[in-house]
Amino acid sequence: MASRRRFVQGVAGALAGAWLAPSLLAAEAGADKGAGKSVRAVVDDFVEANGFHGVIHLVRGQRVVLSEAFGMADVETGRRATVDTLYPLASISKWFVSVAVLRLVEQGKLALDGSIGDYLDGYRADNGAKVKLKHLLSNCSGIPNGFSPRVKADPAIWTKPYTTGEAIEAFCSGDLAFEPGSRFSYDLTNWILVKGIVEHVTGQDFAQAIDALVLAPLGLKHVLPRYTDAARAQVAVGYATIEPPVRKMNPQLVYMVASGGYCGTAADLVRAAEGVYGGSLLSEASRKALSTILVPAESYALGGRVKDVQADGAARAFAWETGRTDGYRSLLAHRLDGQATLVLLNNTDLSQRIIDEFGVAVFAAGAQA
Q1: 18 CB contacts (<8 Å, ≥6 apart)?
Q2: Per-residue pLDDT tens for 63-72?
Q3: Which of 104, 245, 276, 353 has the fewest CB atoms within 10 Å around its CB?
Q4: Domain at 2-92+215-364: CATH code
């Protein structure tokens, strides 16, 4: 029976809209649902209950426990998902960008307590003096999201090729909505400003800077901006529904890349987590900064969340990076002691709650596949 489930990527029933099924795991009982079960059983139940399309990759103690693809990367053409398929990483991109910023901090080019005004000449002086880099990276800057109301009034903005500077002026220059550091607001505008700052202090195109600071040193050959030709040719199609297939994909705008514009493979995400938290890319001080929660109500640190999850009979600290954009969902959950990493990549608009509960259940499950 298990072998048939593992072949779900070829089974027509998996394409019949079962992704709308209720979550297998209750929000308050994710760990209980995994306790006493094997990882294989947790995965099979999840795939069957949710008509899962995508990739699941689990590493424990430096051993790949499971690495499988399910369903379709492109329903219309019949292209099946594989473990090497590229998926949009959505907000996991913020985590990569935060790692790059910390490298620039180590090089003396940036400071987390530095203000926008320290790095962006011409930005409005009042906001520029009050808002610090760490406020941007933790989504608590108070700079309002000027993009959403503009694009609602004029959808043609999706087609306009703003430069970073033009996007900052158009969308990131409103009056502060709240005192920096006092509230959490998950706004695109924070990351347009971070993009501008990185470009200014490095003198490079943003994607070139991220590649030089993070991707190339870690050997992440398949982590690419979604707007590139290479990414467009390989990335899985995002869907709102599978039966009938209805795509859910927005245009890729270059000035949004820091917020959620990268794509990649599951294996590269594992390599990234292991290299960032266990390798020599970052100093101990930078790793501590990356995993220090700045917004307790949201468990949010720099560019992502850190939370305790039950694993091996105790609460363990995890970097819990999630992503949601268009019809895509992603999860990178890395145990900070390096003992486990889970990646889930999906292209059928699954509930993030369902995905998080699945992650909790996997870590609560037995050690064997």
Answers
A1: 48, 49, 50, 51
A2: 999 999 999 9
A3: 353
A4: 3.40.710.10
CA 308 to chain centre: 18
Cα distances (angstroms) measured from residue 118 to each of 111, 113, 127, 247, 360: 10, 10, 11, 42, 41
Q: Give residue 36's pLDDT band: very low, low, confident or very high (50, 70, 90).
A: confident
Token pair 């290479």 is found at 230
Q: How far is CA 232 from the centre of its chain?
A: 18
Q: Are the C-beta atoms of 273 and 264 separated by less than 8 Å? A: no
Are 299 and 352 spatial neighbours (Cβ–Cβ below 8 Å)?
Answer: no
Q: What is the pLDDT of residues 325-358, one digit of tens each?
A: 999 999 999 999 999 999 999 999 999 999 999 9
Phi, psi of 96 (to 5 degrees): -60, -45
Helix 188-202 × helix 92-106 angle, to 10°: 30
Calpha distance 290→100 (Å, rounded): 11
Query: CATH 3.40.710.10 in the chain, residues?
Result: 2-92+215-364
Instruction: Please count the residues of the chain.
Output: 369
φ, ψ (nearest 5 deg) of residue 324: -145, 120
Consecutive H or E run containing 311? strand 305-311
- To which H or E segment does residue 240 belong? strand 239-241
